[in-house]
Design brief:
Chain lengths: 199, 185, 396
């Protein structure tokens, strides 16, 4: 580092080369659960070829991939599986939340669906759509490439940490035997309705 | 590989109408037989044992031959419109020879258990597990009655009317899977 | 004990073909106990995509729930939409117009073609034939373009409405459909040339994953899987609905019940679907699309924006919901995968009391659990691909 804070030519070139190599060869680990998985299949195949953006090899093993594309609804039963796969990936890794269901639960606000994967892992790019058309996913990958361009040194995600993710997936949080963090009971629903003056 | 060409088979309608009359004469004593909105026949069994007997009779009767179990489900009768008991168990039967349909219903109380039909139709195994998971209806004689859709540690039965829509119970890990006799492996 | 004496090394290796696996189409889990490569015991676990669609049926109005029907069998969403609309129309004793019936049959056959494309492409991809996958998916994109011109969306269409369809066919659709019907048989022939006589494909798929006729009856298997096992059952011919009695098509029945037969049945069914599409294209009547029933008729947008009563009518249909009489109905159609059925119990009013989805994949997966015991792991993978398990339909 020079006196005015600027980097030397050699280290900058090295960083730039590393960034260029990383962003142009993102190997995705496709985690396709439901309908978005079919659109992801369409993106990877011949008409909307994802391989021209560097995703040449679609690796089904987390240890050999650096981009996790979560396409589809993640239920509470599937959440530990997803977290395990995320933990098995090596740094540096990026996550794309494809579709409405993985961004925020989508149209399913029910008793078994995780309302967005950002409860259990840090997400880089969210792609809206139900399902997003293949051009949407390609736009997301290009956006991610621009993000990588800005900084290779990713700020470690502050939230959610590993403990946060385990807490989000667990109900045994407190010691005095309370079952869930918060249980929505019919009484609570009626109370809220009264407060809003609906009843 | 042989192909069989189409034949205008609207005669299933006549067989379906005739089936209602036949059921009223043969099986109508003590059981209510009615038609639904689509003119298909519904048979109300008296109790769970009677329901199983009906399924067996429908299978073996030469004029009915219901050899296909399309569906096995239940619904919550909380407002009491279909009878004074809590749940209604629904069997949907289909005949491959006559192409007719029968819906068999049975009223169940909250703690009453139904009889399993796994010995008649092996495919009822998972269907009954799903009914147990969603409603809490116990099936006597089922070889493997445990939850199928939800995690096995889940409490509550989601499709009951009083279960709130958004009450989530997440778990940190996945449960070990029973594998036949080796339950501890 | 004898097992362990025969094989000195402990045979109890547990392998988990887990919820996330390239060969599992969707999220399902098969836990196997293997001895060498032979699967001795298998247990399947589902529920990894349980999204509570049936409970949502009790909370949403009939039109609002139409959206969820796409997400059941997402490879052939049009079929689910139409079956659901058919069920509610049966509940209300409404019969759609001629033009509506023809358009619905066109949609159902088109979705049958694309579902079979996905099944064969994914099956071939699992067994290593990547060329087949890339060649076939191109035709799925062509079909997507046609579907997008009809209703605006490629995959999750929500095209049918109760009493009609949301949009009429666009201009020039007849020519596009004709072009599609002329070109796709050549593609099917190309794939047949690649796979049907291929020594490797035959070795991998013949006598693999045999579902016997007795298993089909016991486990209530329907659709191409049952027909490949020799059971001659097709709801389009046996309990015909809409205009199927007037159409001329063959029902394809196999004999072996193995993966090879299911592949052949699907290829031939695609050809028969093209035949049906050609006939529908020629006979398509010009007439009203919507049924003339005040309870469900969604009025023309131009009238909605200019006339007061029509605006109120439109508002009531979408805000309150349509008023369905008390009763129940079970309607099923011959979907690409088997018998897709909807059982709706209604206590009157705009929301259903109970909606039950009868999905073919549920029963097919149960048969899968039984048939892979005794086979090898690669055979199980080939079998899984051919049975076409769609996780959205399996778990609902």
């Amino acid at each position: 580092m020079g006196k005015d804070g600027s980097s030397f030519f050699f280290t900058t070139m090295l960083e730039e080369t590393a960034k260029w190599a990383q962003k142009n060869s993102l190997w995705p680990m496709t985690f396709g659960t439901s309908c978005c998985g079919i659109e992801m299949m369409s993106t990877i195949s011949s008409t909307y070829d994802l391989a021209r953006f560097g995703a040449e090899v679609v690796r089904f093993s987390p240890r050999q991939a650096d981009l996790l594309i979560v396409a589809g609804t993640i239920t509470t039963k599937m959440a530990p599986v997803l977290r395990t796969i995320y933990d098995q990936m090596l740094e540096p890794k990026w996550v794309i939340a494809m579709g409405a269901c993985s961004s925020s639960g989508g149209i399913f606000d029910t008793y078994s669906v995780l309302q967005g994967i950002d409860e259990i892992m840090p997400v880089d790019v969210y792609v809206p759509g139900c399902p997003p058309i293949p051009e949407g996913l390609i736009h997301a990958i290009l956006h991610l490439q621009k993000q990588i361009d800005k900084s290779l040194e990713r700020k470690p995600a502050e939230k959610p940490t590993f403990e946060d993710s385990q807490n989000a997936m667990s109900y045994r949080k407190s010691v005095d035997g309370v079952k869930a963090n918060f249980i929505i009971t019919p009484e609570y629903v009626n109370e809220q309705k009264n407060l809003r003056g609906e009843k | 590989m042989k192909t069989s060409s189409v034949s205008p088979n609207a005669k299933y309608l006549a067989t379906q109408m005739a089936l209602t009359e036949y059921l009223k004469t043969q099986f109508g004593t003590g059981r209510k037989i009615e038609l639904d909105n689509f003119e298909e026949v519904i048979v109300w069994a008296k109790d769970p044992a009677d329901a199983k007997r009906c399924v067996k009779d429908f299978m073996t009767d030469k004029n009915i031959q219901m050899d296909f179990l399309s569906d096995l489900t239940a619904y919550d009768n909380k407002d009491g419109e279909d009878g004074d008991k809590r749940f209604v168990l629904v069997y949907q039967l289909f005949s491959r020879t006559f192409h007719t349909r029968i819906r068999l219903k049975c009223l169940l109380d909250e703690n009453e258990s139904a009889l399993t039909i796994v010995d008649l139709f092996a495919g009822a195994n998972w269907l009954e597990r799903e009914v147990y998971d969603m409603f809490g209806i116990d099936f006597k004689g089922h070889p493997n009655l445990r939850r199928i859709m939800m995690d096995e540690r889940f409490t509550g039965h989601p499709l009951r009317k009083e279960y709130p829509m958004k009450q989530r119970e997440p778990f940190k890990d996945n449960i070990r899977l029973h594998l036949g006799a080796n339950e501890d492996k | 004990m004898e097992n362990q004496q025969q094989d000195l090394y402990n045979p109890n290796v547990l392998i988990n073909i887990g919820p996330n696996h390239p060969a599992t189409h969707g999220t399902l889990r098969v836990m196997c106990r293997i001895n060498g490569e032979v699967i001795e015991d298998a247990n399947c676990e589902i529920g990894y995509l349980h999204r509570a669609i049936e409970k949502l049926g009790e909370e949403k109005t009939y039109h609002q729930w139409m959206v969820y029907t796409d997400r059941l069998n997402y490879c052939s969403a049009l079929n689910n939409n139409i079956t659901y609309a058919m069920t509610v129309e049966n509940l209300m004793k409404i019969s759609p117009t001629d033009r509506c019936m023809y358009i619905r049959v066109v949609c159902m056959e088109l979705s049958r073609i694309i579902d079979h494309i996905v099944c064969i492409a994914a099956n071939a991809l699992d067994l290593g034939a990547m060329t087949v996958f890339f060649l076939l998916i191109h035709w799925r994109e062509e079909a997507y373009t046609m579907i997008e011109s009809m209703c605006g969306m490629r995959l999750t269409t929500t095209y049918a409405r109760i009493g009609g369809m949301s949009y009429d066919l666009p201009d020039g659709f007849a020519q596009r459909l004709k072009k599609f019907c002329d070109e796709i048989p050549k593609a099917i022939d190309e794939i047949e040339g690649l796979l049907t006589g291929n020594r490797i494909w035959i070795d991998r798929t013949k006598n693999v994953g045999v579902i016997t006729k007795e298993d089909c009856a016991q486990f209530s298997v329907t659709g191409p899987c049952a027909r490949a096992s020799g059971i001659d059952m097709d709801l389009r011919r046996d309990r015909p609905y809409y205009i199927y009695p007037e159409l001329d098509f063959d029902v394809v029945v196999g004999s072996g019940g193995d993966v090879y037969d299911r592949y052949l049945v699907r290829m031939e069914e695609m050809r028969q679907s093209v035949r049906i599409l050609k006939q529908c294209n020629e006979k398509m009547p010009n007439g009203p699309l919507w049924v003339d029933d005040k309870r469900v008729l969604i009025p023309n947008k131009l009238d909605v924006y200019t006339k007061m009563e029509v605006l109120i009518h439109h508002f009531k249909i979408f805000m309150e919901g349509i008023d369905v009489p008390k009763g129940e109905a079970y309607t099923c159609t011959e979907g690409p995968n088997g018998e897709v059925g909807f059982y709706i119990v209604s206590r009157g009013g705009p929301k259903a009391w109970r909606i039950r989805v009868k999905s073919p994949s549920f029963t097919h997966f149960q048969v899968f659990e039984k048939t892979i015991k005794g086979g090898k792991i690669p055979d199980a993978i080939a079998h899984l691909g051919s049975v076409n398990i769609i996780a959205g339909e399996l778990d609902r």
